[in-house]
Design the sequence.
């Protein structure tokens, strides 16, 4: 760890590496790892839980007055009313891990009064460490990283995550993927959203989109992207995305084009766009509510271009009061 890094980032790196060591040891004999199922296709292992405990112990030893929001234990640890909240995913890409597919990571972010200010994404299988402090840039293994410079969507490589839970709108996602696939150089589904965002920050991919994500999936990665010069928001380009279960990221030019392409699929899209999508998908009004349910957004949101240069810190992110 570097003495030039923010002290809280140094502690987060220590926690991420401790979790990574647990994950790497377990990966040597992944067949023996005990696996349980939270819901269909949503797995948790003893490794997730051990890694999360190691992270929480490290963070709270250094900062006992801080709050915790973790994927497996929610808000049961740490202070409940702190302005400092660590947002933790101990093993993003559990399904990959239990199959021995080496695309997974540890994700740790610190929100201060609702704004993400520190971020670590650690890939233990490659020993790749992505870090960011608000206002200080993003780094991969101590090397400054920037988003890609591609400007044409047709030359861009885009990553995503496929729906896999009961109730997910597969038809809508197929339509989104179809729109993206025919206009880009390629579409990839690695299987770990935090690492997807880190790769956008590093310029390995040019954009990313996914629905159904929780704050612990995207908090750290979103700061990496913005500190690397990219943009992050929901599908309509709005900045308050952290708890909206919609995430879109990319370099500025590609981001704007993806908003224009995918904004109509957002639950915050305008009424006209929603109606057009329903008609295109051949859904009746009852089935279409899967796509537009719980939308409290302003139906006048412009889906053709980003409404603002959305960043992880433009506005306070609304952290949930309880785990999802």
Sequence:
């Amino acid at each position: 760890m570097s003495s030039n890094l923010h002290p809280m980032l140094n502690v987060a790196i220590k926690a991420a590496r401790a979790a990574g060591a647990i994950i790497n040891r377990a990966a040597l004999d992944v067949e023996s790892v005990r696996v349980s199922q939270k819901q269909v296709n949503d797995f948790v292992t003893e490794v997730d839980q051990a890694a999360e405990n190691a992270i929480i112990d490290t963070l709270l030893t250094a900062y006992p007055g801080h709050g915790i929001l973790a994927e497996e234990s929610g808000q049961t640890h740490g202070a409940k009313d702190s302005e400092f909240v660590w947002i933790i995913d101990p093993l993003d890409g559990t399904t990959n891990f239990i199959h021995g597919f080496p695309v997974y990571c540890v994700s740790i972010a610190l929100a201060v009064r609702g704004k993400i200010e520190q971020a670590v994404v650690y890939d233990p299988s490659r020993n790749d460490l992505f870090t960011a402090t608000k206002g200080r840039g993003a780094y991969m293994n101590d090397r400054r990283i920037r988003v890609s410079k591609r400007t044409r969507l047709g030359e861009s490589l885009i990553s995503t995550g496929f729906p896999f839970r009961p109730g997910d709108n597969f038809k809508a996602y197929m339509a989104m993927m179809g729109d993206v696939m025919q206009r880009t150089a390629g579409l990839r589904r690695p299987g770990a959203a935090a690492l997807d965002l880190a790769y956008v920050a590093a310029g390995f991919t040019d954009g990313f989109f996914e629905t159904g994500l929780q704050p612990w999936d995207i908090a750290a990665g979103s700061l990496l992207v913005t500190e690397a010069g990219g943009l992050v928001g929901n599908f309509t380009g709005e900045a308050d995305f952290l708890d909206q279960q919609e995430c879109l990221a990319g370099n500025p030019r590609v981001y704007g084009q993806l908003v224009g392409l995918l904004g109509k699929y957002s639950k915050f899209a305008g009424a006209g766009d929603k109606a057009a999508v329903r008609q295109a998908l051949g859904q009746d009004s009852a089935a279409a509510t899967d796509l537009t349910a719980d939308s409290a957004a302003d139906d006048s949101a412009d889906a053709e271009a980003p409404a603002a240069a959305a960043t992880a810190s433009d506005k306070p992110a609304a952290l949930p009061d309880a785990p999802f």
In short: Residues 7-27 form the longest helix (21 residues). The mean pLDDT is 86. The two ends are 33 Å apart (CA to CA). Residues 153-292 form a domain with the D-Maltodextrin-Binding Protein; domain 2 fold (CATH 3.40.190.80).
